[in-house]
Amino acid sequence: MKTLAIILAGGRGSRLDILSEKRVKPSVPFAGKYRIIDFTLSNCSNSGIYNVDILTQYLPLSLNEHIGAGKPWDMDRRDSHVTLLQPHSEWYNGTADAIRKNLHCLYQSDADYVLILSGDHIYKMDYRKLIDFHVEKNAEITIACKVVPLEEASRFGIMEADETQKVVRFVEKPKQPKSDLASMGIYVFNRLKLIELLEGNDDIEDLDFGGHIIPQMISSGKVYAYKFYDYWKDVGTYDSYLKANLELIETVDKIQLDMYDPNWKIYTRSEDMPAVKVGSKAKINQALLSNGAIIAGEVTRSVISPGVIVHPTAKVFNSVILNNTEIKAGAVIENAIIDKNCVIGENARIGEFENIPNKEKPSLLSSGITVLGKGVVVGNDAKIGKNVRIFPGINLEQRKLNVVQSGETIVKE
């Protein structure tokens, strides 16, 4: 069975506003040395699917540089391809519209099935089992789904299925969900049927799978739900991003996503950097340390990305520190997400004061996480509160901002 995978990787990631200001959400770093999209690409490679089209839209440069010809995922074969496609004249107005604007990919393919994937979820899935289920059911559309807590169900497309797993009802992001069976944004289509559906909806400009295609097809009786029971995480918020990263440092008996399984490797494009260096007075407890990091201070329940330096007497707790950030002596960081190339001055403290939700975007930050964008400089002895957003490229030392109260947002002047 020949399968073409199409990865939708154009999402702006507005809820990760600072992390995705200069990069598309699927290229946001994750788990130290990886990018979010690495999990979807690795699933394709491990499932024997090497023909992949990636639809990008916002800020595609970092994604293009990261993926290249697809060599880390073994997609640079003579008989396979990984192709990054950007909008030509009009931007994509919906998930299905994105593929409709690239119909030539479906016409040129000789695949029997089209696997549509999202590039911004963390999970491991053997797509061959999903496709086998689709064939066994003689389905026209199969939707991968997962049971979610009912209180979170309104964030997803929610379906109801009968005892044969045939979908009998589907509602996109219902205000009062009646089911906890959520779409994972993963679909299998018969290729010719997908072409027919896309061509037959020319009158709908913002054509969407959850909003239009799937509800249209339910009456045909050939839409099925494939239940997935393993780890799957949408890391589209600061809370979920930090939590998913820190879940990787749990003890073996508690960890939900095994990154060390030799039979299902997560591949990425890696920089050539030296091994991790740990100083004589360093203290490390439950941490993920990446290549090129130098740890001379204390790191507890944190993820340290490549090239990060933690100087003596500096302390990092419950945080994610991205590439090439330097944390100087005596600095204390707690409950923070710090982007690449930041400098945290001596004896600075991040995560201070009372827990006040971010005043500008309380829906984004209210649990006490502080977020610093790429290239932020924090001066010596500075104090930065909880739920603070500091946008990329800001030098607090030059601005003589030594205290930033909880809930504040610092933007470029």
Characterise this structure.
With 413 residues, this protein is an alpha/beta fold. It has helices spanning 37-46, 61-67, 95-100, 103-108, 127-136, 191-199, 209-217, 238-247; strands spanning 3-8, 29-30, 34-35, 51-55, 81-85, 113-118, 121-123, 141-147, 157-161, 167-172, 181-190, 223-227, 232-234, 277-278, 283-289, 294-295, 298-304, 309-310, 315-317, 320-321, 326-327, 332-334, 336-338, 343-344, 349-352, 370-372, 377-378, 383-385, 389-390, 403-404, 409-410. The protein starts with a strand and ends with a strand.
Annotated CATH topology of the largest domain: Spore Coat Polysaccharide Biosynthesis Protein SpsA, Chain A
CATH superfamily of the largest domain: Spore Coat Polysaccharide Biosynthesis Protein SpsA, Chain A
CATH second-level architecture of the largest domain: Alpha-Beta Complex
- By secondary-structure content and strand pairing, the structural class works out as alpha/beta
Present the secondary structure layout.
Elements (H helix, E strand, L loop, with lengths): L2 E6 L20 E2 L3 E2 L1 H10 L4 E5 L5 H7 L13 E5 L9 H6 L2 H6 L4 E6 L2 E3 L3 H10 L4 E7 L9 E5 L5 E6 L8 E10 H9 L9 H9 L5 E5 L4 E3 L3 H10 L29 E2 L4 E7 L4 E2 L2 E7 L4 E2 L4 E3 L2 E2 L4 E2 L4 E3 L1 E3 L4 E2 L4 E4 L17 E3 L4 E2 L4 E3 L3 E2 L12 E2 L4 E2 L3
Parallel strand pairs: 1-4, 1-6, 4-5, 8-12, 14-16, 15-17, 16-18, 17-19, 17-20, 18-21, 19-22, 20-23, 21-24, 22-25, 23-26, 24-27, 25-28, 26-29, 28-30, 29-31
Antiparallel strand pairs: 2-3, 6-11, 7-13, 8-11, 9-10, 9-11
